[in-house]
Each structure stands twice: as C-alpha cells, then as structure tokens.
Amino acid sequence: MKKFNKIMSVVMASAVTAALFAGCGNADEKTPAADSSSEANNAEQETEAADDTASASGVFKIGGIGPTTGSAAVYGIAVQNAAQLAVDEINAAGGINGVPIEFKFEDDECDAEKSVNAYNTLKDWGMQMLMGTVTSGCSVAVAEKTAEDNMFQLTPSGSSVDCVKYDNAFRVCFSDPNQGAASALYIGENAVASKIAVIYDSSDIYSSGIYEKFVTEAANQPFEIVSAEAFTADNKTDFSVQLQKAKDAGAELVFLPIYYTEASLILSQASTMGYAPIFFGCDGLDGILNVENFDTSLAEGVMLLTPFAADAEDELTQNFVTAYKEKFGDTPNQFAADAYDAIYAIKAAGEKAGITPDMDMSAMCEAMKGAMPEITLDGLTGIGMTWDASGEPNKAPKAVKITDGVYTAM
Predict the structure, then answer these.
(1) Could you identify which of 144, 221, 285, 344 might form a hypothetical disulfide with 304, taking C-beta atoms 3.0 to 4.6 angstroms apart as the criterion?
(2) What is the mean pLDDT of the chain?
(3) In degrees rounded to 5, what are phi and psi of residue 381?
(4) Region class of 286: left (phi > 0), else alpha (psi between -120 and 50), else beta
(5) CATH classification of 177-306 is 3.40.50.2300, yes or no?
(6) What is the pTM of this model?
(7) How would you label 67-96 residue by residue, b for 16+ Cβ within 10 Å and e otherwise?
C-alpha cells in the first residue's frame, strides 16, 4: 500500500501539472470585435435569465449529461437512474440546506458536439450545477463551457486528465493515469501473471491514457509485457491479429484498457481461437455482462479494476442495490455507484459552502469549489473519500472478478 500511495502521489502530481499548463479554447479570429461584444452581452443575459429562473423556483437545479442511447447507453442510463435515486433520497430527507433538488438529464449519445448542445439546453432550463458528463471525450468538451461560465462541474466517470483541468471541475472516478498505474501494481503485487499482453485503442484518450501509465508502472513490477497491439475506431471489429500475437508470445494475461463492446468481441474471438488467458480491464469493461447477443459465460474469470461490486456486504452497498433494483428492475454497475456518490458529494459540499438557490451561478461555483477539498464522504466507491483542489479524488482502489455471471469483490 505504501508503494501504491507513492505511485498515486506521482500520478496526481502529473495530473496537476497537466491541468496547470492546459490551454484554453481558441476564439474565432474572423469575428469582428463589435460582434464579439454583442455575443458576450447576449450570453451574459442568457446566464442571468437562467439564474433568475432557478432562484425564483426555490430549488437547486442540477443538470446531468450522458449517453442514454447509442453504444454507451449502459453507462448513461445507469448514471441517470442512480443520480435520480440519490436526489429522491436527499429531497425526502430535507434537501440541501433545507432546499429541494430538481434534476434534469440530457442524452448526448456519447458525442462531444451533442454533449455541448445538451449543456446549452440545460443552461436554458436554469441549471446551476452540472453532474456530468459521463464519458471522457464529452466531459472534456463540456468542461471548456463550464469553465467559461464558471459553473461547478462534477463528473462521475470522466477519467481523462483534461476533464478536470479547470478549477471549477472535479471527478468521482480515478483518472486514466491512476487506473493504468493501479492495474499494473495490482497485477504485480498479487502475482496474477508473469507474461502480459495489451490490446488498446490508440484513437481513444481513455484507452491510450491508461495504456501509457500501465507501461510506465509495469517497469517496476515482476512481470513482462510480451505484446502490445493497438486498434483504432476505424478498425475495431476484427482482433484476430492482436490476439494471435499475444498467444504466440505466451501471454498468460491480456490487459484490456478499453470499453465493453470491443472487449466482448475480443473474448468471443479468443474463444474461437482456443486462446484462454486471464483478461484484466478497468472500469470501461463494466457493462460487458449486458452486451446484446454476447455469451456471458466467456466473461467468467474476467478481472477489472473498479470501485464498486454489487455483491459487497456492507450496509450502504446493499441498501443502494436493493433500492436500485426495486426502482429500475436492474442491478447497478460502477457508473451508477459513481453517480450516486457524485450527488451526495454535491450535497455535502453545498452544505459545507452554505449555498442558497438565489446565488448566481458563478458565486455558487466559487463556494462549491472552495468546499470540495474540505469534505469527507463515505460513499459506495470509497470510504473516507476526499478531494484535492486539483479536482482529483483520494480513495483506495478495488478490483472485482466475474464469478458465476456476477461481479464479485476481491
């Protein structure tokens, strides 16, 4: 654990450094100064109108954004459901500082441009704080807008370093570097395998970010990376070449820092080849048991680094799982747990900051970002969770294994 803490300190320092030197969005140089001034005034008027709407309603308006349709819908639906569950519980208990929450969620189809459109829609509704977005690419795009507006943003699952490069943005999940380093550390310290292959998506910031830090930390661990093969968004259906190279190299474990759709294809194709290594992934694999037409028996024994297991025996987890199943008829995944914790983190920070619904968006953001490093949360994804001013959470990593068709805590 001391070794892990040291590694996480280095990773955190890297993330903070990246945030400090990250650039802002470029302005359109062809726009005349007079027009820019007019647009700025219009934007300011729209923001003031939205603030007035929220203030007049006597509620805190929290928006959410994520994919509820498309290939990543498993993530977005889970986040939407769990966030609403948390909101309902908080409202039943008296709200935030005695004020109820109104929650509205918009679908972005896991598309950055649509995510920005969803953000603008929620601003028109009167959103005062954003719980989102769900995926990294969309979260990075929307973070540019929340920074411009100085709106408080807490992403439950956006893991790219750039999701929290501005001081108004925080996250619940581990960053990509954290996941990569922690995965290598877990495999090494638990002697899971001695020969490792990696298959990753070089066109995706989530996958490539985890891969880079995994390789860095692997140099300190008692295993060897014998094969590292990439694919891209344009070529993600046939993995026979990557799998054959892993098999020929004698890899006992294949590390998959990718999403569950591609992972399900890899597992199916490996089975066809007669190749049965251990498969190990990160939070992107959470959802593989819900892939349509996938033989879930092929996922038996898959390991993944994730902060939540629905079969955990602690009271908080069991109460959450029971309530979620009763309301939505499904077992919650890690993304649901992240979202549930996100809403409760907003509540804790809001109470610490003493926010009121009549505060304007920027003033509320200043109060919230000052309060986040001062709160401690016992949540589903970590006990005693705290946050740095950099936006990064501090909590211990966990791993689960798919056993008898369910995620089992390790």
Answers:
(1) 285
(2) 88
(3) -100, 5
(4) beta
(5) yes
(6) 0.73
(7) bbeeebbbbbbbbbbbbbbbbebbbeeebb
